[in-house]
Amino acid sequence: MTSLNIQEDRLDFPRLFENTAKRYVFLLTDGMSIDRQRTLDAATELRKYVTKILAIGIGTEVSHNELLGVASPGDERAPEYVFSVHNFNALYTVIQQLVALTCDECFWNTSSDVTFLLDMRSGISDLDFSQAVDALTYVLTETLDKSYNVTVRLALVSYDDESVQIHRNLTDTATTDTLVRYIQMLTVTRSCDTGSSGSCGTSNINTLDKALQKIEQGIFSESKDEARQTIILFTNGDHVPIVPEPTLARLKVSGRLVLVVGVGEQFEVGSFQGLVSDPAYVFVSRSGEQYNTLDVIATEIFYSSCELSNNF
């Protein structure tokens, strides 16, 4: 994405936008800008004259952080006006949502069922697991614990070397604060003798497939037909996920959204792109970095459907 080369001596904004119609700018990009600060400054100036700027990142080379700086800030209709798709054809999947976000004649009727899937294998270091917990806490407290016209139900599942554990079902009614406190108390059980402070052992990574199947057959069996179902995996990615093709095919055919949040310095985005619904749905949360790149996740969870209030 080259810089948004908007200069007032070339574009007369007041004159260009002098009519009273609502004005929306859709920015589509498959990369990052050459001059990031110039891009952000131009977007700030443009926002003075338009109703909304919606930023759509296409592919795996986009900077979610930059798009958050360009797009209009979230409001009661959407937590963020940033969207991710893996190619231009996939834009059709967000058209309905974009129409809803720009529609004044809508009754909002949306629900989302979200399952957090936490990697607790003995091969994950204490530092990486702590980062995963912090990233999960951020998503819960800074994005999901907001007031939007969307019903969101949460479940929590973990997998270790040998088994899968359901910590919370969609029908549980405990508060977000209670869930956060519970997550903060979780610890990894080590299956070797190298000590609890480091990584150890070769884990049975097939438990990831078992966890996905349990979510499909158990957790999401409680979903209503209209609910959007989302799985968010938190892992340090020290293994290439072994998920049989039938499981991947079922997830894609069912329309369930799969996202991955990778933590730790060794996480490789490419290893998990085959698991997610969209290659752009692999997020990275490094130690010492801000978590606000995860804000894009909220846009996917707070998926808005719109029923017109009149009979067009």
**CATH level-3 fold name of the largest domain:** Rossmann fold
Can you tell me the number of structural domains? 2
First-to-last CA distance: 38 Å
What structural category do the secondary elements indicate?
A: alpha/beta
Give the radius of gyration: 21 Å
Total number of β-strand segments?
11
Average predicted confidence as pLDDT: 76
How is the largest sheet built, in terms of strand order? 7-6-5-8-9-10
% residues in beta strands: 15-25%
Alpha plus pi helix count: 9
How does the major sheet shape up? Answer: 6 strands, mixed
How helix-rich are the residues, as a percent range? 25-40%
CATH second-level architecture of the largest domain: 3-Layer(aba) Sandwich
Order of helices and strands: HEHEHEHEEHEEHHEHEEHE
Low-confidence residue ranges? 1-11, 193-199, 308-312
Q: What is the CATH homologous superfamily assignment of the largest domain?
A: von Willebrand factor, type A domain
Shape: globular
- CATH top level assignment of the largest domain: Alpha Beta
Organism: Mya arenaria (Soft-shell clam)
Protein name: CO6A6-like protein
Domain VWFA: 1-98, 113-301
